[in-house]
Design goal:
Elements (H helix, E strand, L loop, with lengths): L2 H53 L3 H15 L5 H12 L17 H27 L2
Helix pairs in contact: 2-3
């Protein structure tokens, strides 16, 4: 054997031993990291996200609001696809939302007014899209 072949065999042996020795350590670290992230994620959900979603009127209302904000940032050509997503989120693309928000604050009337205004804007966008399609 040449010197290079012997060095290559020793390097392969060293690499193999290192993999066998470090494998369980890496696995344990990954497991501990996953457990940590699950604990912190659960805490973040309970303490931060869930209260904000409840204040926003529930999951559907928050998702609908996010889609409305996104619609303003996208080009008009993406409107149809976004309308399809919005209809899946709200459950019906022609009727206003019928979810009842939690009664934790005195601003229920304000939320209802905001929802009505959003629904009016949706209807206006739909009419504009239909007019644009019919004029082609």
């Amino acid at each position: 054997m040449t010197d290079k072949q012997q060095e290559g065999n020793q390097g392969g042996f060293t690499r193999h031993v290192a993999k066998k020795a470090l494998g369980p350590i890496v696995t344990s670290a990954a497991t501990a990291g996953t457990a940590y992230l699950m604990r912190k994620g659960s805490h973040f959900w309970k303490q931060t996200l869930r209260p904000k979603i409840e204040q926003g009127g529930g999951g559907k209302a928050v998702a609908s609001d996010a889609l409305d904000r996104l619609r303003g940032r996208l080009p008009d050509s993406a409107g149809e696809k976004l309308d399809a997503i919005t209809s899946k989120v709200t459950g019906d693309d022609s009727a206003p939302q019928q979810s009842s928000p939690p009664t934790t604050s005195g601003s229920d009337g304000e939320r209802d007014e905001e929802r009505r205004q959003r629904e009016q804007r949706r209807q206006q966008r739909k009419r504009a899209l239909e007019q644009a399609r019919s004029s082609r």
